[in-house]
Design a protein that fits this description.
- It contains two helices and ten strands, in the order ββββββββαβαβ.
- It is mainly beta.
- The chain has one domain.
- It has a five-stranded mixed sheet with strand order 1-9-8-7-10. The chain has a five-stranded antiparallel sheet with strand order 2-3-4-5-6.
- The termini are far apart.
């Protein structure tokens, strides 16, 4: 079941080494809100290392629930961002479904910057937790 959200607020914050992207239903943060973040120091992953899942990107919700390495697929098309979460994420983040689509509606939101930073975040840490990237992304546009 696809849950569609009108994202009236979205932004990226870069506080080295931390990187954060937020997508929210309302400007004041009410309603559905998702925060994607990573510690860029985790990009030094070495093959055969024994890093735990927690040393990857994470996703948090408006309820304060967090899960690491939990996006299986992400797609950008026509100003919308569709995120498919793992079963563990649905459980731990207490989501109503596994797929969310964010329709970005504000002209003040730089969608290319959001996508660029999302790609950095979701490609951080252990490679087996990277999602499939579908659709048009900044380097593809």
């Amino acid at each position: 079941m696809l849950i569609s959200i009108i994202a009236r607020a979205a932004g990226a914050e870069d506080h080295p080494p931390l990187l954060l992207v937020g997508l929210a239903e309302q400007v004041d943060g009410s309603g559905h809100a998702f925060h994607f973040q990573c510690d860029l120091r985790m990009n030094g992953y070495e093959e055969d290392s024994n890093w735990p899942e927690g040393e990857s990107y994470c996703v948090s919700t408006e309820g304060g629930f967090t899960r690491f390495g939990c996006v299986s697929e992400i797609e950008h098309r026509d100003g919308a961002i569709r995120v498919a979460f793992t079963e563990g994420a649905v459980r731990d983040l207490r989501l109503a479904g596994s797929e969310y689509e964010f329709q970005v509606v504000s002209d003040e939101i730089n969608i290319e910057e959001i996508l660029r930073q999302l790609r950095k975040i979701l490609s951080c840490g252990r490679p087996e937790h990277y999602p499939r990237f579908l659709g048009a992304w900044p380097e593809d546009l």
